[in-house]
Amino acid sequence: MLTKGDDFPLHQTPEPVAYAGTDRNFYDRYFFNGYAPDGSGFFAVAFGVYPHLNVADAHFAVIRNGVEYCLHASRELHMERLDLTVGPIAIEVVEPLQRLTVRVAGEGIAAELHFTGRAFPIEEPRFTHRIGPRTYMDYTRLTQNGFYSGWIEVDGVREVLHPATVGTRDRSWGVRPVGAADAQPHGHGVVQGFFWQWTPINLPTRSVFFHLNAHRDGSPWNTRAVIAPDRGGHADFFETPSARLTAPLLPGTRWPAQGTLTIGTDDGPLTLEIEPLARFQMRGLGYVTQKWNHGLYHGPLVVEREDLALDALPAMAPTMENLHVQIVSRVTTSAGEVGTGVFEQLIIGAYDPLGLKDYFDHG
How far is it, in rounded angstroms, from Cα 122 to Cα 254? Predict the structure, then answer.
């Protein structure tokens, strides 16, 4: 089947763009978040395309007065991958790798958000992870910090973004678990676990990125730190796989209480102290949730609003849907800089360095 994408030089296989190899878990996703310098006004967007599942879904969320207001939408894809609209949520690529716009209008929630990158995006190391014999993840991601302008409206109350609003956007594509869960067991003695930390940080004249995927014993299977000066390109980036993040858990949770990130540079160690300001639940964007998990089929078009009172959510719910968080944080560096960033964390199962022995152990 030919689609609009076939008139652009985008092909990765001998087939039309509508076909994405043979793995049913192939996906292609946009992510955005943004916040004022004091951590207030947090918002986030996720938009995913699942070619083999005939699904596209999108999510928008904003925090106001302790409530996370979420808008979920899902539709049938019908193989047209350049249609970046799902019900009330749409993305426009204004200038590839530099400027994008998100528009929202539905269920009492509306927004127009304009993103401009601070530097060229970084390409994170390819994420390939197996659980026993099965490929669990195999994907690539680009990440970019930037500035936002625009407005957000909830139930008729419109707020213009703080003029210094910053944040992060990413694009990832490849294979990860999406849609209905695979009922086939991994095999005797194969126990699934997942440890993830991600800290995109906006400093006054540069960005800092760190991520870690680790095995149960704490050894990394994917990690890197990047320092990217404003308006820089890849040749201007400093990159190292040797950064370390120390982050104790908030008691009774699997959420980080704070963090200390140390990056060895040519000028000596750069230390970043991460101080939490506000918590965002990633379930509001369809991550690790029951009804709106990414790629699930809902019908030709379904739209739903969900309001989450953050203080009422149990950190260790049996469904595990509150484990995945982004913590908006103030960041102070040993170089005297003060900025704002996000500390994202998801821990499923055991993790020895934090003393977690099973799925429901906590700090």
Answer: 28
pLDDT (tens digit per residue) in 51-94: 999 999 999 999 999 999 999 999 999 999 999 999 999 999 99
What's the rounded Cα separation, in Å, for the pair 286 and 90? Answer: 16
CA angle, 133 as apex, 254 and 193 as ends, to 5°? 5
Instruction: Find tokens 């139930």 and name the residue.
Output: 155
Is residue 299 classed as helix, strand or coil in its secondary structure?
Answer: coil
Q: What is the residue whose two structure tokens read 């719910």? A: 317
Q: For residue 277, what pLDDT band results from cuts at 50, 70 and 90?
A: very high
What three-state secondary structure class fits 53?
helix
Could you tell me the end-to-end alpha-carbon distance of the chain, in angstroms, rounded to an integer? 52
The tokens describing 19, both together, are 């076909």
Asked whether the CA dihedral 334, 335, 340, 344 is positive or negative, the reply is negative
Q: What phi, psi does 313 have (nearest 5°)?
A: -85, 125
- pLDDT, residue 346, reads 98
Q: What domains are defined for the chain?
A: 26-177+192-354 (2.40.370.10)
- Cα–Cα dist 109/111, whole Å: 7
Residue 47 confidence (pLDDT) above 70: yes
Burial, 181: exposed, middle or buried (Cβ in 10 Å; 0-12, 13-18, 19+)?
exposed
